[in-house]
Amino acid sequence: MSGSPGKVDVSRTGGVENPPVIILIEPQLGDNIGKAARAMLNCGLVELRLVRPRDGWPNEKAVANASGADIVIENTRIFEREEDALADLNRIYVTTARTRDAVKPVFTPRGLGPEMRANIARNEKVGVMFGPERTGVRNEHVAMADAVVTVPLNPGFTSLNLAQAVLLIGYEWWQAGVEVPDYQMMLNDSFPATRDEVERMFVHMEEELDESGFFRVAEKRPAMMRNIRNIFNRVGITHQEVQTIRGMLVALRGGKHKPRT
């Protein structure tokens, strides 16, 4: 074994003192290790363990492909035996795309995220094990784990590269601990218009449309104006956008008339 765990910098892990450990069994290419390290740090994971890396360690290609995830590379620990890499863990999960003979609980990455969060909240140390790029994990690795993780993908093609697999697990771990709305409006330096500002814009718009002859059929006027209001109310218009639209209305009249309201 080489390397030491060191103290986790919680500023790099989203405030979690004991995030999951990633264990790569017999990784073949330094490039793939580096890309996996980059994916880890994207998701606040900083502890990487390698079991019998084919091309040895340290590895220049791993450093290059980590693209700045130096904390992961520098803290990487090397083991000759799986048992040693897993020895201090309370809970172990293994990733595989294939159905195995063993009777095991099976998680999706989405289900695993909250599971690991709950385990860590109980002060358990958690690890996720990934097999070699070419063959994946073997039956003996599945036997070492408490549960299996399988990614539900196209049944006709479930192959993932190592970094993709690590990112999927890491992403769901990260998402299970953050509260980010599924949708939000990016306002930059602007702010939503007040109802009074929007109403004044509609009055101005209706006056200009009147003078231009837009409302040719009087009976349709109320419905047309409602439709116009719905268009603008649906998008959540900002203060700056109200000012821009009113400026456009003035410009369309040749700039000769200021807004009436």
From TrEMBL:
TM spans, by residue?
A: none
Its lineage opens with: Bacteria, Pseudomonadati, Pseudomonadota, Alphaproteobacteria, Rhodospirillales
Query: SUPFAM superfamilies, alphabetically?
Result: alpha/beta knot
Record domain tRNA/rRNA methyltransferase SpoU type: where:
21-171
Q: Which GO terms describe its cellular component?
A: cytosol
Pfam families, sorted:
SpoU_methylase
Protein name (record): rRNA methyltransferase
Which GO molecular function entries does the Swiss-Prot or TrEMBL record give? Answer: RNA binding; RNA methyltransferase activity
Q: Which Gene3D superfamilies match?
A: 1.10.8.590, 3.40.1280.10
Q: Which InterPro entries does the entry link to?
A: Alpha/beta_knot_MTases, RNA_MeTrfase_TrmJ/LasT, SpoU_MeTrfase, tRNA_m1G_MTases_N
Might you name a Gene Ontology BP term for this protein? tRNA nucleoside ribose methylation
Report the sequence similarity comment from the record: Belongs to the class IV-like SAM-binding methyltransferase superfamily. RNA methyltransferase TrmH family.
Swiss-Prot/TrEMBL keywords: Methyltransferase, S-adenosyl-L-methionine, Transferase
